[in-house]
Amino acid sequence: MSLIEVQTSEIVKKQIGYKWRAYTGVFTSLVVIQLLGLLFSLNGSGSMGSGRTVYDVNITYYTADIVVGFTIFWGFLTAFLLTTKAYREDDFAFVTNRKTSTLSTIVFLFMICVIGALTALLSGFALKLIAYFILPGEEMLLTQGVGNVSAWLLGMFATIIIVFMFSSLGYLAGMIVQLNKMLVIVMPVVVVGLMILLSRGGFQIQVYFFEFFFEENNAWLFTLKTLSATTIFYALSVLVSNRLEVKQ
Amino acid sequence: MKAIKCKDLNKRFYRKNALNDLSFSIEENKIVGVIGRNGAGKTTLLKIIAGLLKEKSGVIEVYGRRPFNNLFVSANTIYIDDAMNFPTALTLKEILEEGKRFYHHWDHDLALRLFDYFGFNPSQHHNELSKGKESTFNMIVGLASRSPLTIFDEPTTGMDAAVRKDFYRALLKDYLAHPRTILLSTHHLEEMEDLLEEVLVIHEGSLKLQMSMDDLKEYGVGLTGKKDVVEPFLKEKEILWKKEQALDTCYAVIKNDLTDHEYQRMKEAGVQVSPVKANDLCIYLTESRNEKGSVDDVFDRSADV
Question: Which residues form the ABC transporter domain (chain B) (predicted)?
């Protein structure tokens, strides 16, 4: 048999296709988690009311916020799961090395994050429909359409990169845990412990984290911050994964 | 070019040395058996060759490149063991199709014909298979991939005798039509004698023996007779194994370098000279050197109490 020279790009492409077909389980979990999100959203994500002697006004907002939140969580968890041994060994059933395996996983994660973000945002419309037809009440529903298309697209883009960023965080956490099983316990303890310690010292890291990413009003800056964080997390996980052996 | 070159290879797991200064090389296009007791380091060695594990020190080269994390080696190697992990979402047929996409030499026609012959259901999933069926399926993947270096780590686990026989025939036929380097680790040497060209015997992480199968079959010779008669012949000989039997007789295995003269003398003294099967020889060679004796002694001792 003659020896074959293969290109990294060729194998990455094949691996992406392979993962797309093999990891269909991630879509099942996406559907389940978004349906759950929808269910919880039926309570409305915000409401206000005011009353006069003659009439009562009660406004409930139905938005996809909860679904988006759940999707972010799903992105984190899916990426985390893809680093576990069973999935990594699936990679190595066929031709690959660390680099192609990680690269294809990142591309695959990006693809599913786009899908997850898209369905999460679209579920906002579904929610309004459900609320309109199903929810009881002396309703005078004010449904707002897409409104400003460009604003909606911007929101779409922001959701994608946020979900993608959290997937990179999950991927990094997963890779670190794979180094040593003890880290499953040690890592959360250290992270949460540090947060508590810092907040006692008056520095609330979680608040700072949310301000840093979510309260950025400039779209360009927001993109820059999110994408750089994503890149850093993935780069770190590549460094960590290079120390891993495949089968033991 | 050598298919595999290995020099002073070491591998350590947390507390235990799995491989100790292992050195050998394997020519291209041979079927080589890797023989050794449980825990001798066969699997570790094969995984290092396949690039799945990282060596601690020493040199390991597959087609001139270091296998760990190497795309070239991965593309030209397939490693099949009894714990293959295929995605649970894919059916057996889809797994074969993935194999076709990844391996350039993949013979899909052969894969499908074997698949039919062994009676697999295309819509079954890999994790639903029985032990023997799973091994059979993995074997099909290994054969169909036609990788220049094909590694089977105990491929026959769980297969019944008929399937094992089919497997040996399929392997040999495909090898003759498409010569490639095949590494097999096995505990069924007696069944594979006609298949293997060369044998690596590994004992406690080091190389005990590397020779062609034909040489191995004639490597040792067994002497049986009264202890005091056999004993003088054993002097100046390399004793590979010795066991004392009832009624003052003993059985000794020595290297087969007897001259006609010695042979004649033994015959006259009433020593039975018999050939030693390759499988038995490997067991003798890999007997642990401590004082534990055979499993019989475990029971004898308890009988004394």
Answer: 4-229
Q: Do B86 and A2 touch (CB under 8 A)?
A: no
Residues of chain A predicted below pLDDT 50: none
Give how far A235 is from chain B: nearest CA, Å: 17
Q: Is A170 helix (H, G, I), strand (E, B) or coil?
A: helix
Whole-angstrom distance, CA of residue A95 vs CA of residue A93: 7
Say how far apart CA A245 and CA B294 lie, in whole Å. Answer: 37
Nearest CA to B289 out of B219, B233, B208, B222 is that of: B208
Name the amino acid, one letter, at B75.
A
The confidence band for B189, taking pLDDT boundaries of 50, 70 and 90, is confident
pLDDT at B246: 73
Quick check: is A24 in a domain?
A: yes
Strands B2-12 and B57-62: antiparallel
**pLDDT at residue B150, as a whole number:** 93
Please report whether residue A31 resides in a domain. yes
Question: What is the CATH class of B219-304?
Answer: alpha beta
Residue A244, classified by CB atoms within 10 Å of its CB into exposed (0-12), middle (13-18) or buried (19+), is middle
Q: What is the C-alpha separation between B164 and B230, in angstroms, rounded?
A: 40
Other beta carbons less than 10 A from residue B5's beta carbon: 16
pLDDT over 70 for what percent of chain A? 93
Residue B87 contacts A where some CB pair is shorter than 8 Å: yes
Query: Given this model, what pLDDT does residue A138 score?
Result: 59
Give A8-47 pLDDT, tens digit per residue.
899 999 999 999 999 988 999 999 999 999 888 887 767 7
Q: Average pLDDT, stretch B102-122? A: 92
Q: B146, A1: Cβ pair inside 8 Å?
A: yes
Does the interface predicted TM-score (ipTM) exceed 0.90? no
A184 falls within a domain: no
Does residue B245 come out as left (phi exceeding 0), alpha (psi in the -120 to 50 range) or beta?
beta
Please say whether the beta carbons of B251 and B294 come within 8 A: no
Number of domains in chain A: 1
Q: How many C-alpha atoms does B267 have within 13 Å on its Cβ side?
A: 7
**Where in the sequence is the domain holding A237, given as residue range(s)?**
8-45+60-179+216-241
How far away is chain B from the Cα of A179, in angstroms, using its nearest Cα?
14
Token pair, residue B91, equals 């059916």
Residue A78 in any domain: the answer is: yes
Q: Does domain B2-216 have CATH number 3.40.50.300?
A: yes
The DSSP result for B208-222, as a single string, is EEEEEHHHHHTTEEE
Identify the pLDDT of residue B288: 67
Residues of A in contact with B176 (CB under 8 A): none
Let me know the angle formed at the C-alpha of A201 by A200 and A207, rounded to the nearest 5 degrees.
75
B127 touches chain A (CB under 8 A): no
Using CB atoms and an 8 Å cut-off, which of residues 1-20 of chain B contact chain A? Answer: 13
